[in-house]
């Protein structure tokens, strides 16, 4: 152990209570920072997984019709055409989904493509009637761009595959209409009634989906909605989901169809999660700020009480840098112990929270607290503590370094 570090330990023992207060604040600050970031990030990541597993990474929908203007290049009849965004129009749906799908599959980041046809109908059960939306899908294609199979909570998706008149309904819809797997109901559109069977019941946790969305096989949906061609939109799954914004912009430019990334579609909720993460970090950082103030006060008191010892050290040949390092070492020791204990506290509370039962439905389905285990939460908590505590220790350490033995003897030390 170096002499400076040994002296720092000796000075620390002179202010045990004050140092314990600083230590406890660091532990709480680091631990709670880790917990809050783990929970807010966990819910955010789970929300992202839910929307990616339900609506895909990119949705390609309306066709873009640009306005073309002719302009003269030289005033003598040499014209050229330009495309203007100001006059662009959107034509609902996709007229030739096969051609668009073939083009989308050529993009390197695409993992799967599924065409979807939807329309509004009336659902009639023995209990009540509800307005719902039919979604026609090709099962195998849709499973590549969604988590539909993992979202099944009753029944099996194989029954849907093998039954033309089969359907998938949401759990909330099943409760509202009192339907179970194997039971029948009717769909009405334009005065015609058709009977369908509940092959399986799914739950995404998104109430707007589980309450109104009925999945049918594509052929049956086309017959019911009387749309033998076209598609309402194309759902795209990506290998790297974070590239969705750039890929969507590229698809819009190449395909001349409006393409929306999941970040654009869910921008509001993503901003809400971001605000919660920042606000919780600011709130729990108050503990670390208190630790910094306590460290400042403790070191300042040590400087005042140890002026004679500091003068003796200076007379023995210790430089100003040595004296400054002694006080920096004190802050470092407390900070290191507090950070390690804070990591342990944060990990323990995070684990306990992850086992806490809750029931959330609305934007996703969760029966326990969702946490995200990330080393970056611990790094961020440590950096916050380091900045606040070390900044607070600089002033007392510099003041101690400026003490001169002669000033101490004369009683004029400041």
Would you mind describing this structure in some detail?
- There is one protein chain.
- The protein has 15 helices and 13 strands.
- By secondary structure, the chain is an alpha+beta fold.
- Strands 3-4-9-6-8-7 form a 6-stranded mixed barrel.
- Helix 2 (16-55) crosses helix 13 (320-354).
- The protein is elongated, with a radius of gyration of 33 Å.
- 37% of the residues are buried.
- The mean pLDDT is 84.
The proportion of strand residues reads 15-25%
Please give the number of β-strands. 13
Shape: elongated
Give the rounded overall mean pLDDT: 84
Q: Topology as H/E string?
A: HHEEHEEHEHEHEEHEHEHEHHHHEEHH
The biggest sheet amounts to: 6 strands, mixed, barrel
Q: What class would the helix/strand composition place it in?
A: alpha+beta
In the sheet with the most strands, the strands line up as 3-4-9-6-8-7
Salient structural properties:
alpha+beta, 414 residues, 13 strands, 2 domains, 24% strand
Mind sketching the topology for me?
Layout lengths: L2 H10 L3 H40 L2 E15 L6 E13 L5 H8 L5 E15 L4 E9 L1 H5 L8 E4 L1 H5 L4 E5 H7 L6 E6 L2 E11 L4 H4 L2 E5 H8 L7 E6 L5 H12 L1 E5 H4 L1 H39 L1 H9 L4 H35 L2 E4 L5 E3 L6 H27 L3 H6 L4
Parallel strand pairs: 4-9, 6-8
Antiparallel strand pairs: 1-2, 1-10, 1-11, 3-4, 3-7, 3-10, 5-8, 6-9, 7-8, 12-13
Helix pairs in contact: 1-13, 2-11, 2-13, 2-14, 11-14, 13-14
Can you describe this structure in just a few lines?
This protein has about 425 residues and is of the alpha+beta class. It has 15 helices and 13 strands.
């Amino acid at each position: 152990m170096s002499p400076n570090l040994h002296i720092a330990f000796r000075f620390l023992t002179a202010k045990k209570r004050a140092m314990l207060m600083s230590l406890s604040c660091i532990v709480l600050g680091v631990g709670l920072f880790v917990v809050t970031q783990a929970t807010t990030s966990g819910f955010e990541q789970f929300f992202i997984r839910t929307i990616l597993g339900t609506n895909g990474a990119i949705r390609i929908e309306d066709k873009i019709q640009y306005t073309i203007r002719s302009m003269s290049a030289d005033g003598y009849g040499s014209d050229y055409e330009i495309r203007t965004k100001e006059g662009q129009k959107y034509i609902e749906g996709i007229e030739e989904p096969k051609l668009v799908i073939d083009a989308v599959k050529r993009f390197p980041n695409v993992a799967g493509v599924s065409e979807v046809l939807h329309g509004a109908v009336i659902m009639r059960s023995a209990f009540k009637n509800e307005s719902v939306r039919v979604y026609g899908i090709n099962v195998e294609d849709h499973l590549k761009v969604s988590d539909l199979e993992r979202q099944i909570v009753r029944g099996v998706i194989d029954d849907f595959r093998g039954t033309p008149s089969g359907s998938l309904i949401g759990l909330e819809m099943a409760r509202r209409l009192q339907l179970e797997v194997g039971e029948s109901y009717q769909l009405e559109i334009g005065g015609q009634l058709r009977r369908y069977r509940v092959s399986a019941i799914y739950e995404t946790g998104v109430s707007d989906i589980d309450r109104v969305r009925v999945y049918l096989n594509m052929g049956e949906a086309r017959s019911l909605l009387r749309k033998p061609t076209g598609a309402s939109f194309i759902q795209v799954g990506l290998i790297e989901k974070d590239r969705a914004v750039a890929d969507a912009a590229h698809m819009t430019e190449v395909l001349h169809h409006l393409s929306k990334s999941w970040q654009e579609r869910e921008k509001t909720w993503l901003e809400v999660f971001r605000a919660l993460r920042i606000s919780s970090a600011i709130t729990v950082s108050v503990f670390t700020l208190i630790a910094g103030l306590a460290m400042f006060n403790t070191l300042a008191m040590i400087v005042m009480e140890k002026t004679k010892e500091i003068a003796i050290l200076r007379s023995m040949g210790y430089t100003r840098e040595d004296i400054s390092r002694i006080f920096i070492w004190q802050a470092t020791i407390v900070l290191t112990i507090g950070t390690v204990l804070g990591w342990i506290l944060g990990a323990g509370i995070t684990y306990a929270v992850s086992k806490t039962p809750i029931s959330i439905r609305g934007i996703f389905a969760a029966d326990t607290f969702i946490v995200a285990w990330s080393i970056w939460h611990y790094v961020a908590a440590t950096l916050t503590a380091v900045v606040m505590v070390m900044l607070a220790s600089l002033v007392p350490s510099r003041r101690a370094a400026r003490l001169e033995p002669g000033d101490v003897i004369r009683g004029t030390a400041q």
